Amino acid sequence: MTGQPTAAQRRVIDAADPVTGRLRGGTEAQRAALVQRGLAFRHPRPPHDHFLTPAGHRIREAPPEAEPPRVPVPERAAPPSATGVFAARVGGEEDPPPSGPGRLREVHSAWQGLLELRRMTNPDGAAGRPCGWERTHLVRAAALALEAAGHHPATGGADGYRVRATPQPEAVAVYAPDAAALAACAATLEAAGWQTGEYTEPRTRRRYLLASPRRA
């Protein structure tokens, strides 16, 4: 069963870890109620922590009483997070977060958290294959894999990668400034558990990757 949480349950959801979804507050009764609503689950292995489901993540990221999310428009950069929560850089942001050692630490921590989420939520505990959260946050997940591997996103007048949504289910488009950079992005995504193919836009003749999470 799914449903909208109460105000108290919403506070528990909002306090969850933004990457792993581990619940960090609330009473046992509140966590059990979120499980019953399909917004969280109790991990079967000790210490039996509770984690948000993909439905719980969607509620966490949407403001209360928000309208249903619109389908992203390809080739338009997603806005940076206005909540202060970590957001992977997809390339082309008008106001990107500052770079430097602090950003490197944030990216490393987010990537390690995502690997732990894979271990926790994939049925076989595999960390080398994308998990359910990544399948519902394709652009952010692919961008995090690229940024964590040291690729530079496009920003200002500098060239770099750009990750964009596509009309195809479970697929994102990845653009890079040249063939070598595109091949490097493909290698990184494949090592992170994605499958990629290189294509050419019919009108612009621009090369790009079509990347989707592997299922096995």
Task: Kindly summarize this structure in a few lines.
This protein has 216 residues and is an alpha+beta fold. It contains seven helices and six strands; from the N terminus they run H-H-E-E-H-H-H-H-E-E-H-E-E.
- Indicate the percent of residues in helices: 25-40%
SSE succession: HHEEHHHHEEHEE
Contiguous helical run count: 7
Oligomer: single chain
Order of strands in the sheet with the most strands?
3-4-6-5
What is Rg?
Answer: 18 Å
Largest sheet: 4 strands, antiparallel
- Distance from N terminus to C terminus (CA atoms, Å) equals 28 Å
User: What overall geometry do the principal axes of the alpha carbons give?
Assistant: elongated
Poorly predicted ranges: 65-84
Taking all residues together, what is the mean pLDDT? Answer: 83
Count of the domains = 2
Amount of beta strand? 5-15%
Total number of strands: 6
- Tell me the structural class: alpha+beta
Region (Disordered): 39-79
Descriptive account of the structure:
The chain has 216 residues and is an alpha+beta fold. The chain has 2 domains: 1-65, no CATH class; 78-216, no CATH class. The chain has helices spanning 7-14, 28-36, 54-61, 101-121, 132-136, 138-148, 179-191, and strands at 40-42, 50-52, 162-165, 172-175, 194-200, 207-213. The strands form 2 sheets. It has a 4-stranded antiparallel β-sheet, with helices on one face. Strands 1-2 form a two-stranded antiparallel sheet. The radius of gyration is 18 Å and the shape is elongated. Residues 39-79 are annotated as: Disordered.
